[in-house]
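Hi there, hope your week has been kind to you so far. Thanks so much in advance, here it is.
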Amino acid sequence: MGAEKQYDGYEPYDYLDADEDYRAFPLAEKTAGFEPRTLELTDEEEARVDELTADTVLSLHDHAFRFPENLDEDLFDYIREGRIHTAYEYLAETSLDAVFDMQLDGLSSVHSLHGWKWDDISHEVSMRACDLMHSDYAFQCRSVDDIHRAREEGKLAVVQCVESAAMIENELDRIEQLYGMGVRSMGITYNTSNALGTGGGDIRERDGGLTGFGARAVARMNDVGMAISVSHASPQTSLDTCDVSEKPVFDTHALAKGAGMGARGTADEVFEAIAETGGVVGLLSSTHLPDIETYMEHFEYVVDLIGIDHVAFGPDVLYGDHTELLRTLSEFHGVELPESTLESEYVDGLENPTEAWINIPRWLVANGYSDEEIRKVLGGNVLRALEQVW
């Protein structure tokens, strides 16, 4: 059973002097850009939530840190300072025992203009790891045992992840270097293609799928024990990855094309291929949906498609004005975002990790899921797959 959260008041980079050792920025508050909502429950339902969240609660995909309060002026300076602030205090308000933290990824432009370079990613991973080592509440997660320890001790296991393998270029050994830094999950591609395969946003007349080098990279990730995600990869790249991987494959954050999510949605055949590997699909909320109720329609669609044993939650949310962040990035990169991305100013009930991980268990209890089903989707399914991967 889980212990009471043991947050000790540590703030990011407390071992340094802000504005002396590094430039500090005003950071977004917990409810920046939206009106928070907590789903109402009966006293009996409240008690059941408490009981169920005493078992493992795990987010398969979030960005568990704070962005600047003023995105227009401070975003890129904050990034180039190289010290992203994990939201320890806000995360301690949830029942989370572990979070797959996707860091800045393509925004990680500490040393380059457009990010994803080796120096950018290795800088961010190692700097965040250093900060985690100074916290008594949160720590870098390197094994399934660490997740169990976090639950038993009231702490938070932070799984450091990257959403694309672009930074390994043509060097398989970099997979081992990232693993040595603590990275335990990596995507094949982001929207843009790389040496491993075709990105989900990079398809023109045909989908090139996984490359030969990509197949070797999948094998190396299997060998070292790094979880593989096909989020943002093209459909054929995703299917090829599932075909060649000898370990369960993840899509850490997805919505269902079959449930009405257009171009940002994933096809049923990809979900089915992931399930056939023994893998898990995490359900995505960020910026694409109006509210938690619509989010759960996608959850139920995927459960009906591939079964409750292969579904979890990866909201892909953060602390800051997410919609404004995407507007800023689209202008910087000159990319037109899908209509669904900016359709809602925020996702009612799911806008940041604190709100999401308070409300997800509450919705499941309020909507009649059994104890066994809830324990599976809150963490059990991911733990089962990670036992095979890590």
User: Anything to note?
Assistant: The CA atoms of residues 110 and 120 lie 5 Å apart.
